[in-house]
Amino acid sequence: MLLALYTCLLWLSTSGLWIVQAEDLDTDVNTRSHHRGLAPTNVDFAFSLYKHLVASAPNKNIFISPVSISMTLAMLSLGTCGHTQTQLLQGLGFNLTEISEAEIHQGFQHLQHLLRESDTSLEMILGNALFLDSSLELLESFSADIKHYYESEALAADFQDWARASRQINEYIKNKTQGKIEDLFSDLDSPAILILVNYIFFKGTWAQPFDPESTREKNFHVNKTTTVKVPMMFQSSTIKYLRDLLLPCQVVQLDYVGNGTVFFILPDEGKMDTVIASLSRDTIQRWSQSLTRGLVDLYLPKVSISGAYDLGGVLADMGIADLFSDRANFSGITPEAQLKVSKVVHEAVLELDEKGVKAAASTGVTLNLVSEPLTISFHQPFLVLIFDHFTWSSLFLGKVVNPA
């Protein structure tokens, strides 16, 4: 499974502050306590954001990287002050009477370290950079904080020559992601005076790969009146699955080599909204504890999905409204300009294919009673939830309505 995505967080104002997050989607006891303290809050925010997005576009594909959105907004909070900062951190789900601002950033610092370095079997490229116009006075405290907590570096760019600056940023991101992310900006984009870039590329390898020779074109029922042809992957193997007795759905869990875990959820026809409304930490925990292992004939669409989401309205609905108003206080970034957020855009791409590890072989003889395999076919709209199971970070959440 190849996950490639990028996210854009965008400021447009008379002062021209513009933040972009680019993505082409892992110690000691103290470190673990920091990142695990974030996990419940981040997952709750992930499902809340996901449900708001699904409600705003009920008949469309959805695919987002919640943990990277949380990380970028937390990093942004280092440049906010007063009520703007409090509202932003509370909007991310943090109870500031129980966790300090410093502990939040320490948690993200350790989480980023774990996601980047603890699992060598997943291909993970994660980093940050700050591009600023030579005319902007950047506060040293902000520069030092983003370097310390988020390993972000500050680079000069001439935003008066936007064509040249955009090429510089595109080349930087292309080099950092080994060519996985290209042409994030175009000459037609509006110039700015400060751009904060966060990039992440993730590529996972199935622990049990699909055989490309078994992929066949099949019908996918988008709704009662629309059917499309899609390449349907197939494997017959022993996997974890569940027919949920509380919710109208079937669940399949597939693992990557390493820390990646994927839940594929197939709601009964007409029951998508019921299942989405019930998504929570408790539901995921119940599924994890209730899954059984058995022989399954599994059919899964080979899909590539892309989409763009303006998160401004959604974030405002979730209580993060100051960023988009004249009340915004970004005096932690620069003393020179009155800034506010006018747009938050998230763009993502999902590619789901057969790729897995090369098989190893050994020879032996066993006799066993084999029952008929259960057939589970994802031939109608389904959900995909991707976690790093070491940190329990919600790497990606998706809803596939039409894989074509």
Automatic annotation (TrEMBL):
Signal peptide limits: 1-22
Keyword Hydrolase recorded: no
UniProt keyword annotations, A-Z: Signal
InterPro entries xrefs: Serpin_dom, Serpin_fam, Serpin_sf, Serpin_sf_1, Serpin_sf_2
SMART domains associated with the record: SERPIN
Domain Serpin: 47-403
TM region(s), chain numbering: none
Family in the record: Belongs to the serpin family.
Protein name: Corticosteroid-binding globulin
Organism: Galeopterus variegatus (Malayan flying lemur)
